[in-house]
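Subject — a protein and its fold

Tokens — whole-number codes for backbone shape
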Amino acid sequence: MDTLLSSLLFFLSLFSIGSSQIQNFQQAFPIVEPDPGHTKLRLSREGLEAIERITNPIASVAVIGPYRSGKSFLLNQLLSLSCYEGFGVGHMRDTKTKGIWIWGTPIELDIDGVKTSVFYLDTEGFESVGKSNVYDDRIFALATVMSSVLIYNLPETIREADISRLSFAVELAEEFYGRVKGQDVAFEPAKLLWLIQRDFLQGKSVQQMVEEALRRVPNVNGDKNIDMVNQIRDSLAIMGDNSTAFSLPQPHLQRTKLCDMKDGDLEPLYVKRREQLKELVASIIRPKIVQGKSLNGKEFVSFLEQILEALNKGEIPSTGSLVEIFNKDILERCLKLYSERMGKLQLPLPEGSLQQSHDNSRGEAMRSFDQQHFGRHHAKKSVTQLDEEIQKVYRNVILKNEYQSSKLCEALYTNCEDMMDQLQVLRLPSMAKFNAGLQKCNHSFEHECVGPSKTNYEQRMMKMLGKSKSQFIKDYNQRLFNWLVAFSLVMVVIGRFIVKFILIEMGAWLLFIFLETYTRMFWSAESLYYNPVWHFIVATWETLVYSPVLDLDRWAIPLGVIVSLFVLYWRCYGKRKHGSRWILPLYSNNKNGRSRPRSD
């Protein structure tokens, strides 16, 4: 029986252990811990339980700063806890704070009539040995996103590295906040409290020190290093008026014994300023707002999980490596994307089409960069650089397009010029053939010449065609007149001595006499070409010389050879085979005519 009872008690104890929750929240719990390599972060269930149980709106105060700068001691002072009760203090033992820790019991405050639970967060100090910059930056950024009041705890003074690290943390937080909530959702930064721990400020208030440290540096000579310094300060503009400065003197000279001292042992000025700091934090803290809504415990944990997943996902730069350098590879890929798209174009193209292709390719490259780049404020320089590089590539494409356009239009212009020269020296001048060639040139040039050179070559083409047409018309009537005179004489010879058609000879003589005598006697050189008779001659000539079916200028020689062969054949063999009868009357060639008998 005892054995059975002891076994039952054993199993009940196991069950109670497995299903038990945290009973004592008066202690610090880790909520975010580093992985073994100190490169990424992971959530700790213990701390999340302390947050999830809260149903009120949540606000949080996070303290960030360098390694061994007194962050944990400061938090214990704000919570009115000793080192043995609150967060572990570094000089007592090995650094207790790894990742981000939370005090399990929140302070209840009435903020603007709303009961709010305020948690205090302790963060692992940066710049310690054995950690990567990326890890430090993730801790810094996560604290920036989580907190309602962010206390930047700095010993003695503000260094440029401190400003740079804060700037980068804000950029990092804004970036991953946007990745979780959407790019159209503005990042809502925490209230920033610059806490400078020093005894003497040499006549300057801590607020003046902060304002001077964040003031833009004049850069008359355009120094790139100063530009970078000012860019860091510009990126903190998102903090706006959310920052406050406060100084806190050293609590005691013997820092290693601070945990054993009561308030009466500490410097009175420190105790006074510490109480003022508590009042300041209570006056500026507000519930954590995400997308216009305050968060309770479960909503805060869900938001934290999303942010942490975004922070751990993919590669991010570190403070030591400029965001522009990190974005360089992305910039080069986007520039390559633009170049490849523009390289596929079949040049030359009209300027409007090329501009449209440029706009589309640039838009795609910019969208790709927006999806991949890191940072919003720092990345502005990278965006500007990408646009400048795209414009350089585009200018080269424009020059290439102009060259290809000029080359194509020049070739078409030369072809048309050669065609006009050939039409000027036709063996048989034809206005119809000249006009057909001119229209062909115009049509081919209008449809094939494209690009920026077209306008210039259009003017040259119109000038050349007009000049060619004027020259052709000027020579056309005179050449046609000479051709008709020569034709009449040739037909006289053919009709007289070759075919011996008396009507052909007579018609040729009439044409010759008309051209050489009548026109010179009764028509002037100018009026000849406007006479209806001449127009009839020209129309007849054009009908014979050129038509879509027969181009006599091209076939004149072959046809002449064929006719000559036919005449020779007829002269040699035609009479023997068909006799001497002709359709037209021939010259009489009767040798026996004189020996006819005479009649009385």
Notes: The mean pLDDT is 76. The longest strand covers residues 114-123. The chain has 19 helices and eleven strands.
